[in-house]
Specification:
alpha/beta; Purple Acid Phosphatase, chain A, domain 2; five-stranded mixed β-sheet; 4 helices
Amino acid sequence: MKIAVIADTHITSGVVPPGLLRIAGQADMVIHAGDLVQAAVLKELKSVCPDVRAVYGNMDGEELKAKLSARLIIDLPGGIRIGVMHGWGAPAGLLDIVESEFRGKNVQIAVYGHSHQPSRVERNGVIYFNPGSPMDKVYAPYNSYGLIEIRNGVEARIVRI
């Protein structure tokens, strides 16, 4: 299984860039870790990948908050569990917040966004995975997204755009 992981798209025009749609269309599932900004982003992603899972972020309005939750746990075959949330607060403490939110939830991967900074850290057997932002590099050296591949185990990697 191939999962495209994105966050912090901050799309205000209602149009997902073709390159991002191509990435989503090549995946079995898309996870969006919040700050879509417009509900049209969900519709466009679902037009190329029917299995889109998303949470809302701090920049998402009432329409998205009514459709999405703040946290999500995805149960996959083989006992794989992925936790998803956006995050809040300063980047320096973000990983601790995410770890606290998913402690005891038996997740193998915790996906989050908010900082726009790509990161893959393992703590106590859990992969904490921030794909960065494919659209905005104000707080990061490059644009990126994430790929999670599940075969005989779990592999999560950052992909520079």
